[in-house]
Design a protein that fits this description.
Layout: H1 10-23, E1 29-37, H2 45-60, E2 67-68, H3 69-79, E3 83-90, E4 93-99
Parallel strand pairs: 1-2
Antiparallel strand pairs: 1-4, 3-4
Helix pairs in contact: 1-3
Length: 100
């Protein structure tokens, strides 16, 4: 799922992820590509861009927001996934794997 979860509230994301979990075979995974807000903001262009996107999500999509890594992990766990791994980063977007 590329740039999808940031459009939705936690409740809607949870519904999407639970449906993905049900559809996966044993030991399957969902690949999520989304920006990750840093835990400690800095003055870098990357952080400023992600924060700007967070404000845009707030204005355009009720409940939409950029999330921190621990927020993605919490959503994954609540949906039933056993864990999450950051597989890489490209142009501000993280590739995350949610494991069944």
């Amino acid at each position: 799922m590329k740039k999808i979860l940031h459009d939705w509230s936690d409740a809607h994301c949870l519904k999407l992820l639970k449906n993905c979990y049900k559809a996966l075979p044993d030991y399957g995974k969902v690949i999520v590509v989304d920006a990750n807000l840093p835990d400690i903001p800095d003055a870098s262009i990357a952080t400023k861009s992600i924060c700007q996107m967070d404000l845009q999500m707030l204005a355009q999509n009720p409940g939409g927001k950029e999330r921190r890594a621990h927020e993605f992990l919490a959503l994954a766990k609540e949906a039933g996934f056993s864990g999450m791994r950051h597989a890489g980063c490209f142009c501000l977007f993280w590739v995350m794997e949610f494991y069944k």
